[in-house]
Design brief:
34% of the residues lie in helices and 25% in strands. By secondary structure, it is α+β, with helices and mostly antiparallel strands.
Length: 757
């Protein structure tokens, strides 16, 4: 008897094989698999590499033809860069020939069920297999899943296939429709839009247009600066009438004392935050560490595959009900140098965790399951620590906060003074990331007189609505029922990659993104209708639970899309004209950096085969030109330098004045003969966008450069082998790796190194 276990990835196959017995690693054409014996049964553990199969048209028609609905599943090796998939397909086919029994051990979600089923069907020629289901890759969970297998969930398979087919229908057909509209007016541009990306971009664009159209409204704020640097604000907070505000100010501006007329003290108990679902983890990781949702998902997946946390793609905020399971984990965690004391108390006092409202039929909330045995990267440490603390804090005591609201009287005008303090840390001792305001007020009693130092009146303006961030957009997509927990981060990533949205701390829709949405809204609003997308999401869920049939949903979607595309074709030329007009305006605007100091023309960003530079639009009449470095993504922040008023560009993470003669870049350098260590030619002083530097006189044959103030090397980095250099930080000098930010190794500056300086 031989059993074949099909996993999702090679790393998971190794984990499962080693959990089930003493596994021997073997390979077929470089593809690893594992053999072991258990209870007299030969077990082979092999893997896919994610999706082994993808969708293509059944017949190759003329370029750009649409609509297309006749499609088939083929090996994913047809996609560029995925040729390696063929080896895994061949290996599974070969291994399946000797197998009598089949197990699917892919991730327990829609995509995992589909990956496992496709591998079984197209590689092994089978439709049925036993299904191992687990929420963590601990030995105990794997053994339990193997000994108590389930069946394939064909509802999940159908929902997975339907989602891929629908995304293909919409993505391919709508993108071809847009590109054909541009071709209809004898132009060409690669365009794309998708089933969920369109509606997501549409509501981002709505927010962007709100911001552009926003007209600020003035208001006035009156504040009293009291003794001990306390600030009180007029109880009205915002005066919308300038005359009224000035009358109040004139009445009290010279007053030197205030009387306490009311004191309200309240205490609040703050329950622990519920354990993480994926969306909340993504938002918190971005908020505290600026790790993008997509990267957070990837890191969490890696931690799961290393058996450190439970399965991350979950919408549950509830830990497992199995107390024995939780106690087993806590008994491991109590050996951790930091978390151990908390795990020990949870076990000793039999503390129960809080729960959130959200549930997931497949997986519990994200939680730690083990202690790292190997060194984690900095970001992995941050995500693991976030999950570990959130897991343990869920068992902990309430935090208690005290709030003090004081009302004071200044010549008949009432002002508010607020204070707050933490009375009991509770869970905040463990999960300390949310910041509590600690504003201590002096002991006050009713009728006390407080000295007034100064009274001010300030004119302010209302602010436009805030743009979404890559974290807050995840919550908004969830709220609107667009995408899934596993796809939302990828949707935003695609919008950024396609140039529809820029992420500069918040999500700003580009002119290109706005023009695409305005075109679709004007000529074909159904394409960006989120109601249609939401309706399809609901139907996909019903397919999963066998409430409706897959074919019925696909047939209905095809009819709906055919109708949309028929209307689109009728207006193809009009759409093309309108789209090109917007695109041309967008492209021109996107390249303008600022005004030419010589002739007043536009300074534009130019990308040439010989490099990148900023030049005047009136060339050759005007020869103003600024060189730019070859590397680093360029953004135009529409700012000018304070010192020389030249335009500023953002290159990578740095904002830089383009003028090499800018006063801020000038440095005093002693003339000295310096030799290029690379070719032996003379090093000469040069000026560039980053300031002055030494460069080889043999340029461009030799491209050696050296900073003016070369950093002092004090050793080699034990982490990556780079140079350890003396650096300057806000807390003084320290030693850090020269490969920062890729390597973040640091150490204290030793006394003898200070003396050497």
């Amino acid at each position: 008897m031989t059993a074949l276990i099909i996993c999702e990835k090679p790393s998971v196959a190794k984990k499962i094989a080693n959990a089930l017995g003493k596994a021997k690693k073997k390979s077929i054409d470089g593809v690893p698999y594992y053999e072991l014996e258990r209870d007299g049964k030969k077990i082979i553990v092999a893997s896919a590499v994610g999706h082994l199969f993808t969708l293509v048209e059944k017949e190759n028609k003329e370029f750009g033809f649409y609509p297309v609905f006749d499609i088939k599943w083929v090996p994913a090796s047809v996609d560029k860069g995925k040729e390696y998939v063929n080896k895994y397909i061949k290996a599974l086919k070969k291994l399946s020939k000797d197998a009598d029994e089949f197990y699917i051990a892919t991730d327990w979600d829609i995509e995992g069920e589909l990956i496992g089923y496709h591998a079984l069907k197209y590689c092994c020629g089978r439709e049925k297999a036993k299904r191992m289901r687990f929420s963590s890759l601990t030995k105990k969970e794997i053994v339990r899943a193997f000994e108590n297998p389930d069946e394939i969930d064909y509802g999940l398979v159908d929902a997975g296939e339907s989602r891929h087919i629908l995304d293909w229908y919409f993505g391919i057909n709508l993108s071809r429709a847009l590109m054909n509209a541009i071709r209809a007016v004898n132009r060409w541009k690669t365009m794309s839009v998708g089933r969920v990306q369109g509606p997501a971009l549409a509501f981002l664009t709505e927010r962007e247009l709100e911001i552009k159209k926003f007209i600020p409204k003035p208001y006035w704020v009156i504040e009293a600066l009291l003794k001990d640097n306390l600030k009180a604000i007029h109880e009205k907070e915002k005066f919308w009438n300038e005359k009224e505000a000035k009358n109040v100010y004139e009445k009290i501006k010279d007053e030197k004392s205030a009387k306490v007329v009311e004191i309200k003290k309240t205490k609040r108990k703050l329950k622990p935050l519920p354990p993480f679902d994926l969306g909340t983890l993504q938002r918190e990781a971005y908020s505290y560490f600026k790790i993008s949702p997509k990267e957070t998902q990837e890191i969490a997946q890696k931690l799961y595959e290393n058996a450190l946390i439970s399965y991350p793609r979950t919408s549950s905020q509830k830990l497992p009900k199995d107390r024995k399971y939780l106690e087993d984990i806590l008994n491991i965690i109590k050996n951790h140098p930091v978390y151990g004391k908390w795990a020990e108390r949870i076990l000793k006092e039999n503390l129960k965790p809080v729960e959130g409202k959200k549930e997931d039929p497949a997986h519990p909330a994200i939680h730690i399951v083990d202690i790292p045995k190997e060194e984690l990267s900095e970001k992995e440490k941050e995500i693991y620590d976030l999950i570990a603390r959130r897991t343990l804090a869920a068992f902990w005591d309430n935090a208690e906060r005290e709030y003090l609201n004081v009302k004071i009287d200044i010549k008949g005008e009432k002002f508010k003074l607020s204070g707050s303090r933490t009375v009991k840390e509770g869970w905040h001792e463990i999960y300390y990331f949310p910041k509590f305001d600690e504003i201590e007020l002096p002991p006050l009693k009713k009728n006390d007189i407080i000295k007034v130092e100064k009274i001010t009146i300030t004119r302010k303006e209302t602010q436009p609505p805030k743009r979404y961030t890559v974290a807050s957009i995840i919550k908004e997509l969830e709220k609107r029922g667009l995408g899934t927990k596993a796809t939302r981060a990828e949707i935003i990533d695609k919008l950024i990659k396609r140039g529809y949205v820029i992420d500069d701390g918040s999500l700003k829709v580009t002119d290109l993104g706005i023009s695409v949405i305005e075109t679709l809204k004007r000529f074909c609003p159904e394409i960006i209708d989120e109601k249609m997308t939401r309706d399809l999401e609901e139907k996909l869920e019903k397919i999963q639970f066998r409430k409706i049939k897959k074919d019925d949903v696909l047939d209905e979607a095809e009819k709906r899309l055919r109708k949309i595309l028929e209307e689109f074709k009728k207006k193809e030329e009009d759409i093309g004209i309108y789209l090109i007009k917007n695109l041309d305006a967008t492209n021109k605007k996107a390249k303008i950096v600022g005004k030419c100091p010589k002739c007043g023309g536009d300074l534009i960003l130019i990308r040439h085969k010989k490099g990148r530079f900023v030049g005047c639009s009136n060339y050759p009449e005007c020869d103003v030109k600024y060189s730019l470095p070859d590397k680093g993504r360029i953004k135009i922040p529409n700012k000018v330098c304070d010192a020389c008023k030249s335009p500023i560009l953002k290159i990578g993470d740095r904002e830089i004045c383009i003028n090499p003669e800018c006063p801020l870049k000038q440095v005093e350098v002693k003339e000295e003969d310096r030799i290029c260590p690379k070719c032996g030619a003379k090093l000469i002083l040069k000026k560039g966008v980053y300031g002055a530097f030494y460069g080889c006189s043999n340029y461009p044959k030799c491209k050696y450069t050296e900073p003016i103030n070369k950093k002092e090397v004090v050793g080699k980095c034990p982490k990556c082998g780079g140079d350890l250099v003396v650096r300057e930080g806000k807390f003084g000098k320290f030693v850090g790796c020269s490969n920062y930010p890729k390597c973040r190794y640091t150490e204290k500056l030793k006394l003898n190194e200070k003396e050497e300086k």
